[in-house]
Amino acid sequence: MSTQTDGLLRKLDELNARFGQIETLLQDPAVASDPARSIPLSKEQRKLRDLVERYRDYKRCEDGIREAEALLGDDQADSELRDLAREEIEQLGQRRDALIDRIKDTLVMADDSAIDSIILEIRPGTGGDEASLFARDLHAMYMKYAERKGWRTEVLSFSATEIGGLREVIVNVRGPGVWTHLGYEGGGHRVQRVPETESQGRIHTSAATVAVLPEPEEIEIEIRPDDVIEHVSRAGGPGGQNVNKVSSAIKLEHIPTGITVSMRDEKSQHKNRAKAWRILRSRVYDHHQRQVTADRDSARKTMIGSGDRSERIRTYNFPQNRLTDHRINLSLYSLDRIILGDMDELIDALIAHDKAERLKSL
Length: 362
Hints:
By secondary structure, the protein is of the alpha+beta class. Helix content is 49%, strand content 20%. The protein folds into 3 domains: 3-113; 117-215 and 297-360, Alpha-Beta Plaits, CATH 3.30.70; 220-294, Double Stranded RNA Binding Domain. Strand 2 (152-160) and strand 3 (166-174) form a beta hairpin.
């Protein structure tokens, strides 16, 4: 058995023991009746369940192989029993090997799979009006992809330009596998095409930035109210609607991190406050996670790219119908389909590359 597999099995032993410990704790009436303790434990239990069940199946295969090998080595056993033992060793060995591959797969992607809600932020970069139109197209692409996946979307903030582009859009996307599939989208996106606003047919280059933040449940991150300054003001609007009438715009400032969130989309102060807090939690959570990631071992440093908005991750070349992801040197000549939300080939390639890199670091 390789050193890598030895280390993996030791890790699985620890997780199996932890799973048993959680089961015992949840059976304690004092824990079960305390949501602050029982909810995090139940979440941890759900996260570990598939992994532990596969590991226990793996252990049963190992036990079965040992028993069959003992029978095979028994000179007193008749030939028919020994033939059965050989057959069982082969079958159990195949199942054991398949299980360890699935376990590795589950182990390296478990943290990502557990996140089922994200905040997606899209803003134009360099390029003026064309950048705002590109931001609009990226937003449409992600919404169509989310629809294909059966995910739920909720627009938290939306600001359009006079020509139909976007100054900013912030969307909550929720559903199974949403972080696993969209977590690689953070960074700088560059487009090369003839803009709608170009009369001479010249190709322009412009950019948009995308941020993808896991949306933590409230119990996962606690922000002390004393650490947040809330500013309330009157929201402006087109045609003087709701101007100087109701103080509904909300700005939250998180003192420890300096993160600020402004929300003025809704006429209701209550709705603006609720949306602002959701975005603030995600940004503060992301801030802390980046600090943790910087100190983690290499297994978590293999994620594709940093997600930094200044990092150019992808180029969309419309004249050549080509999309290039610079992180994995992948070029696909199907940009017309991708921009309409058919992103599976692209996303699957990113997941496969990331998974392979994480497995190397196990």
